[in-house]
């Protein structure tokens, strides 16, 4: 009975790992652009859920520049198949379909980017980020 409980526990743990997103932590320092999310090749699709937590110093905000965002979207639907959501704790913006040269200006020193994609689908997105210091008065 104990062996069966252990096997069941391992099965549940494995299922939980499959359902949750892969976690990526990125720290931005200074006014230099840094790759925070990248998969340049269309052959290298993001095919599983990903979460990127981007942070910087508490007296700075985050700026992201995404050269390209391509996430599966069927005609007429509003992002049910896959989406890329940027949330700075104050507001959030969601993208799907195809966009180029997207700029996101966060209002806080932390931004969480969630990529949700159903099994068997994929997307391409690559973004650089930098810390932006508020001018001192």
Automatic annotation (TrEMBL):
Cleaved signal peptide residues: 1-21
Keyword Signal included in the entry's annotation: yes
Keywords, ordered alphabetically: Signal
The name this protein goes by in its record: Protein sprT
Organism of this sequence: Lygus hesperus
Organism lineage string: Eukaryota, Metazoa, Ecdysozoa, Arthropoda, Hexapoda
């Amino acid at each position: 009975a104990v062996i069966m409980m252990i096997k069941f526990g391992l099965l549940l743990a494995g299922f939980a790992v499959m359902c949750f997103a892969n976690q990526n932590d990125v720290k931005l320092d200074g006014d230099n652009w840094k790759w925070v999310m990248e998969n340049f090749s269309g052959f290298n699709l993001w095919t599983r859920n990903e979460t990127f937590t981007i942070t910087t110093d508490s007296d700075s905000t985050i700026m992201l520049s995404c050269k390209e965002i391509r996430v599966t979207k069927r005609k007429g639907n509003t992002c049910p198949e896959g989406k890329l959501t940027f949330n700075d704790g104050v507001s959030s913006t969601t993208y799907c379909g195809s966009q180029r040269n997207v700029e996101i200006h966060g209002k806080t020193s932390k931004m969480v980017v969630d990529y949700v994609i159903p099994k068997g689908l994929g997307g391409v997105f690559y973004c650089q980020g930098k810390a932006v210091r508020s001018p001192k008065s």
